[in-house]
Amino acid sequence: MNRRPFRPEEEDTGKFLVDVFKIALGVFIGGLAAAFAYEAILTYRAEEAMRKAAQEIKAQAARTNAEIAKQNELNQQAKEEERQHMEGLRAAQALEKRLESERRQRKEDAWARFHQPSPNCKLDSGTTACANEYMAARKRFESQYVDR
């Protein structure tokens, strides 16, 4: 057996270069496709992250608005309770004032019925005797008077 060294034929050489070119072209196109796919995936991830962030911001805003509304409602209730309390105080004060006025009027009426100045004091009430009579009558009245 006689061995011969391998030598590609001339037409095989051209075919080999075309095959290498095809492979290189396929690798280049595959690399471009991979790069575009990678860019598309990054874009999708970025959009998804922005969408999730927007949803979280909306949810946080809704929670904040709900808390503000709840606080406003509590403040409104507190103001209403304070207003009712103040109205109650005013009504109680008005009642107390009216009752005190009526009590004073009853006492003045009782005093007018109790003390009848003497005829001399009716004419001239500025004398010492009239003043003493008035003071003594007032002391007796105050010690006896009971509001009913």
Q: How does the SSE layout of this entry go?
A:
Layout lengths: L9 H105 L4 H5 L4 H17 L4
Structure, explained:
By secondary structure, this protein is mainly α. It has 3 helices and no strands. The chain has helices at 10-114, 119-123, 128-144. The protein is rod-shaped, with a radius of gyration of 56 Å. The model has no long low-confidence stretch (mean pLDDT 90).
Q: What's the rounded overall pLDDT mean? A: 90
Helix content: over 70%
- Uncertain regions spanning at least 5 consecutive residues: none
How many helices? Answer: 3
Shape: rod-shaped
Query: What integer value in Å does the Rg equal?
Result: 56 Å
SSE order, one letter for each helix or strand = HHH
| Class of secondary structure makeup | mainly alpha
Q: Strand tally, please? A: 0
End-to-end distance: 153 Å
Note the beta-strand portion: under 5%
What composes the largest sheet? none
List keywords for this structure.
148 residues, mainly alpha, 3 helices, 86% helix, rod-shaped
Short description:
This protein is mostly helical and 148 residues long.
